[in-house]
Write a structure and sequence with these properties.
The structure holds two protein chains of two kinds. Chain A is α/β, with parallel strands linked by helices. Chain A is built from 13 helices and 17 strands. In chain A, the strands form three sheets. In chain A, strands 1, 2, 3, 4, 5, 15, 16 and 17 form an eight-stranded mixed sheet that branches. In chain A, strands 8-10-11-12-13-14 form a six-stranded mixed sheet, sandwiched between helices. In chain A, α7 (about 285-295) links the parallel β12 (about 275-280) and β13. Chain A is globular and about 70 Å long. In chain A, about 50% of the residues are buried. Chain B has two domains: about 25-80 and about 375-430, Roll (Urease, subunit C, domain 1); about 85-375, Metal-dependent hydrolases (TIM Barrel, Alpha-Beta Barrel), CATH 3.20.20. Chain B is built from 13 helices and 16 strands. In chain B, the strands form two sheets. In chain B, strands 1, 2, 3, 4, 5, 14, 15 and 16 form an eight-stranded mixed sheet that branches. Chain B has an eight-stranded mixed sheet with strand order 6-7-8-9-10-11-12-13. The radius of gyration of chain B is 23 Å and the shape is globular. The N and C termini of chain B lie far apart (about 65 Å). The chains are: A alpha/beta, B alpha/beta.
């Protein structure tokens, strides 16, 4: 019964989505527009044509047939971007092995995950959804737009960085794992082991690259030996070779300042790029190094003390790092927190004293830069994608509620519409309960 | 009796201090110029709060200030009563994943004999963080099993448990078993066992009644045998006699209805905790006159049919139905977030004033301490928060927190660590 009802309501939500009628054309009128990068308009309009922001200004006219959305008294901001979550995947951790660089989140996108819908209810339009932190080298991650109701391929943001997940500290060393008497503990079980296994794997990848270079050189040579055979193709090392070639970038789950510094050393040893340290509650301890190396952080604003390596994760770290030249984004790590990232950004006004724009950047342009999509997303600018969230109050207020979420000029979440449909569905369900009803 | 003693010692202290003319404790202090939000009654723009010792002596627009009064200039600030967390683990938990630091979950199912305040760690790093966000009192409670133990009310200041504890026993915590078919995603116990567990609960209370009766009877009649001591039943006597309320943790609609029936049948004084699907049975909760303490609103809906915003709108629906509501953090590590749960409910329909009440005067009412705290009123304890804005807003900074007339230290683990590493950047610059 419950399942049927759920499917019924879900069906209504999906089929009644107004998004496909707008064709990516919308005019949002009379809202307070917070562009994040180009200042604010107290009462302005935003025109989206063909999914792209065409104009931002006052008294814009809607071309014929373009739907107009009245945003009077409301706040219009760029769609929120979550640089680190694990939604919309049918698997998170490949725990069958310790090094799993060959797995790819692109293969397990679950477009029907309800978390996509709930993310929309929090104004989120894009998310970097990642392999978990069980393995020192996890797998490739994927950046998706929250196009609820669309097939998986349409969710993928192709221009985003191709990223590879690494993990340091308590999770890969399995600190919380119960090891029973006689049972072997998985290697690695220490931070030194985590580093050592990553180094060994990188050396193997380098060796693999040399084997292939030698082979390709030999095949192109004048008299290739008759016995010439290609090296065994290894998809795991292939992924790491891509990292060393610069076609993949590293996203590194790390907590302690020291383990992060040691990983920076590793990246220099092998010459690969770290875009972000993930979570890194101790980032405030190493702002100089992060700034110098140009490495960003993607953090919880104030979740802390859930484990020992998170016991010094202070709430003002995000703001402090921002003020000291580190590119910071605030992430969710999962579906629940994902729908309140604007609340988390609001906390940086108090804890660390960021300005409103600085705080909003943590959930818009900064994650966009970290994902390599700043050209098309992360702020309200002419030429960028029409990804927009509309709030009843200033989004950094504790009283804020997301009213509407728009992706490329299509409305994917509309609270007013949602409430109307819910009421309707409840009525129909009531009817169906009556004798002879619901046939 | 103890009240009388307290009163006389108070008078004695007063006399002594007046006599020697030095003691600061009983002296006057006036907070001037703040917009006073007493929670009970109208706001007073640009008012004065006169404090004598630990209590509010007077408050209003123009009140006479005795000579020699210490003046605190609070112009431009807002004065609120300190907030009360309706259910938390402050002092009972430091690091969530490290069992050695957690003392809120006893082993076994039936533990009425345990008291949360007896595990209280005054030096917990989470207490000053919560306090610096305007929380001055909290219900600290055990959880887990069927009867989890006794909660207690603490003030968020003090060097020892004794200095912190306001009331050592406020409620008996009961985790109501999830019934089969209640349609709730978080199942606390195997569904098949749930009905048995409810029966077990009923049996325990009936045994406690019998235990009490036989003992009373034996006291009066020397011919009757005195019952063997039973540490579980012993501590259920205040519950069955209606002296000690039970706080029943219950979530799903069907379970809430069963819990209401249970409370009625057992004639208990009850408070509900959680009640995620309360909005479905708001009128029944109201009819049973059971107040509700909500858990964290940072949660997904209990079931998808309820809609994405079910947890957020639940407080508003219950409050509008006339149920007395309070918020809680159900946490130690994020106890500071108490006001934001209330604000989230406002975003989804709860009146702002009601939200404020639900973190101040309502929990005070629910826990039976509204005569001394929960609002800014003459005669109440001076638990006062001076803020630069709306108490429930994310951007608001808390400037001063007074607990029972004494200014508290707002530094905490966050500020200590930041200061330490700030010096690193500064050295390098």
């Amino acid at each position: 019964m419950n399942k049927t009802l759920a499917a019924f309501i879900l069906g209504i939500i999906v089929t009644a989505l107004p998004c496909f009628s707008d064709g990516g054309n919308l005019l949002v009128k009379n809202g307070t527009i917070l562009t994040v990068t180009k200042g604010s308009l107290p009462k302005g309009d935003l025109l989206i044509i063909g999914g792209v922001i065409k104009d931002i200004g006052e008294n814009l006219k809607a071309p014929e047939g373009v739907r107009v959305i009245d945003a009077s008294g409301k706040f219009v901001i760029p769609g929120i971007i979550d640089a680190h979550t694990h939604i919309a995947l049918s698997g998170t951790n490949e725990t069958g092995d310790v090094i799993t660089a060959e797995v790819n989140m692109r293969d397990v996108i679950q477009a029907e995950d309800l978390a996509i819908f709930t993310a929309l209810t929090g104004g989120v339009t894009m998310a970097h959804t990642m392999h978990g932190s069980a393995n020192p080298i996890g797998g490739r991650d994927i950046t998706l737009k929250m196009k609820w109701g669309r097939p998986a391929e349409e969710l993928i943001v192709p221009q985003a960085y191709q990223t590879l997940k690494f993990a340091l500290g308590e999770n890969p060393k399995q600190a919380s794992r119960q090891v029973f008497g006689g049972a072997p503990q998985r290697y690695p079980a220490t931070r030194m082991g985590v580093n050592a296994i990553i180094r060994a794997e990188m050396l193997a990848a380098k060796n693999y690259m040399l084997q292939w270079e030698r082979y390709l050189k030999d095949t192109k040579g004048k008299n290739p030996p008759k016995t010439l055979a290609p090296p065994r193709r290894d998809l795991r090392l292939e992924a790491l070779a891509e990292l060393l070639r610069g076609n993949l970038v590293a996203r590194v789950h790390s907590y302690r300042a020291d383990e992060s510094l040691k990983f920076i050393d590793l990246s220099k040893e092998f010459g690969f790029k770290i875009v972000c340290f993930e979570h890194i509650p101790e980032a405030f301890k190493i702002t100089r190094e992060l700034r110098t190396e140009g490495i960003g952080t993607s953090v919880f604003v104030d979740s802390w003390a859930y484990k020992v390596e998170a016991a010094e994760g202070i709430a003002s770290s995000a703001a402090y790092c921002t003020k000291n030249g580190v590119l910071v984004s605030i992430n969710s790590d999962g579906g629940e927190r994902m729908r309140r990232l604007f609340n988390d950004a609001g906390k940086t006004l108090k804890y660390g004293g960021l300005t409103e724009d600085e705080a909003l950047k943590l959930i818009s342009i900064n994650p966009a830069i970290q994902l390599g999509v700043a050209k098309t997303a992360g702020s309200l600018e002419v030429g960028k994608d029409g990804d927009v969230a509309i709030f009843n109050e200033h989004p950094l207020s504790a009283y804020a509620r997301c009213e509407m979420t728009i992706i490329e000029g299509d409305v994917y979440f509309d609270r007013a519409q949602y409430l109307k449909e819910r009421e309707e569905a409840a009525k129909q369900a009531e009817e169906a309960k009556k004798p002879g009803g619901g046939q | 009796m103890t009240k009388k003693i307290l009163f006389f010692s108070f008078i004695l202290c007063l006399t002594v201090s007046v006599f020697f003319g030095a003691e600061d404790e009983a002296a006057y202090m006036a907070i001037k110029g703040a917009r006073i939000i007493p929670v009970v009654g109208e706001d007073i723009p640009d008012g004065t709060i006169l404090i004598k010792g630990s209590r509010i002596e007077a408050l209003g627009k123009d009140i006479p200030i005795p000579p020699g009064t210490k003046i605190v200039d609070a112009s431009g600030l807002y004065a609120y009563p300190g907030m009360i967390d309706g259910y938390c683990y402050l002092g009972l938990s430091e690091i969530v994943s490290i069992a050695a630091t957690n003392d809120y979950r006893e082993t076994g199912r039936i533990n009425p004999q345990v008291r949360a305040t007896e595990a209280l760690r005054p030096d917990s790093m989470h207490i000053p963080i919560a306090r610096s966000n305007g929380i001055t009192a909290a219900l600290v409670a055990p959880s887990g099993g069927l009867i989890a133990g006794q909660s207690g009310l603490i003030r968020l200041t003090g060097w020892t448990p004794e200095e912190m504890v306001i009331k050592k026993s406020v409620t008996m915590q009961i985790e109501f078993p999830g019934l089969p078919g209640a349609g709730f995603r978080r199942e606390r116990a195997p569904r098949e066992d749930a009905s048995k567990l409810v029966t077990e609960l009923q049996d325990m209370l009936n045994k406690a009644r019998y235990y009490q009766k036989t003992r009373e009877a034996a006291k009066k009649n020397l011919l009757l045998p005195y019952p063997e001591f039973d540490d579980k039943l012993e501590f259920l006597i205040p519950v069955v006699s209606g002296e000690l309320p039970v706080m029943i943790s219950v979530q799903a609609e069907k379970d809430i209805l069963a819990a209401i029936q249970f409370v009625r049948e057992q004639k208990l004084k009850a408070i509900f905790y959680g009640v995620s699907q309360g909005w479905k049975v708001a009128s029944e909760i109201k009819a049973a006159d059971i107040p509700v303490v909500f858990g964290s609103l940072n949660d997904m809906p209990p079931s998808w049919e309820d809609g994405y915003d079910a947890i957020f709108r639940n407080p508003s629906v219950l409050q509008k139905a006339g149920v007395k509501i309070a918020f809680s953090s159900r946490s130690a590590v994020s106890a500071k977030d108490l006001p934001y749960h209330a604000a989230k409910a406002v975003a989804f329909g709860l009146d702002k004033r009601e939200a404020l009440k639900a973190v101040t005067i309502s929990p005070a009412h629910i826990f039976g301490v509204s005569d001394t705290m929960g609002s800014l009123e003459k005669g109440k304890l001076a638990n006062i928060v001076l803020a630069d804005g709306d108490l429930l807003e994310l951007r608001t900074n808390i400037r001063k927190v007074y607990i029972e007339g004494k200014e508290t230290d707002l530094s905490n683990r966050f500020t200590e660590l930041l200061d330490k590493y700030k010096s690193r950047e500064e050295k390098e610059k």
